[in-house]
Amino acid sequence: MPPFIHISYDRAIDSSYDISQMLQAAENAAKRVEKQEQPSAKGWAEIPEAQMTPELKADLLLIKNRNVIDPKRHYKSTGWGKDLPTHVQYANVIEPASRYYSKSSKASRKGTLMGEFVASGKNEYVSGKAAELTREGAARRSHRRGGKRAGKGKK
């Protein structure tokens, strides 16, 4: 008789040991095994759920809002809705030897998409629009408060 069955048998014979406890322990063990066997990303080619770091979140938001970066380019919708995807992976692009002289240097590459975007200088349109909206908002708030009396409380 295998040792684990022998131990269980001895416990079952012992009158002080409750059988219901043993059955409950067996059910809990079966549930743990079921949880481990379930695939984490069924239908996602077994891509595991990524831990959402601030860098990953910034990159995903950049991809989601890429149509705001350049108004003259039109992108197909990501289809993400309001939520960001949870099953994502980073990859390194390995370029062929024929592109040795035309590829970007290691110094110009950044660790994240957001880093590359900021370093590329393509954020001029976004920065200008943000500044314009800030000015318009400040003007609207000043107008609502009464112009010269801005900052004073109501009487």
From TrEMBL:
<dbReference type="InterPro" id="IPR039883">
    <property type="entry name" value="Fcf2/DNTTIP2"/>
</dbReference>
<feature type="compositionally biased region" description="Basic residues">
    <location>
        <begin position="140"/>
        <end position="155"/>
    </location>
</feature>
<dbReference type="InterPro" id="IPR014810">
    <property type="entry name" value="Fcf2_C"/>
</dbReference>
<feature type="domain" description="Fcf2 pre-rRNA processing C-terminal">
    <location>
        <begin position="38"/>
        <end position="123"/>
    </location>
</feature>
<dbReference type="GO" id="GO:0005730">
    <property type="term" value="C:nucleolus"/>
</dbReference>
<dbReference type="GO" id="GO:0003723">
    <property type="term" value="F:RNA binding"/>
</dbReference>
<protein>
    <submittedName>
        <fullName>Fcf2 pre-rRNA processing</fullName>
    </submittedName>
</protein>
<feature type="region of interest" description="Disordered">
    <location>
        <begin position="128"/>
        <end position="155"/>
    </location>
</feature>
<keyword id="KW-0539">Nucleus</keyword>
<dbReference type="GO" id="GO:0006396">
    <property type="term" value="P:RNA processing"/>
</dbReference>
<dbReference type="Pfam" id="PF08698">
    <property type="entry name" value="Fcf2"/>
</dbReference>
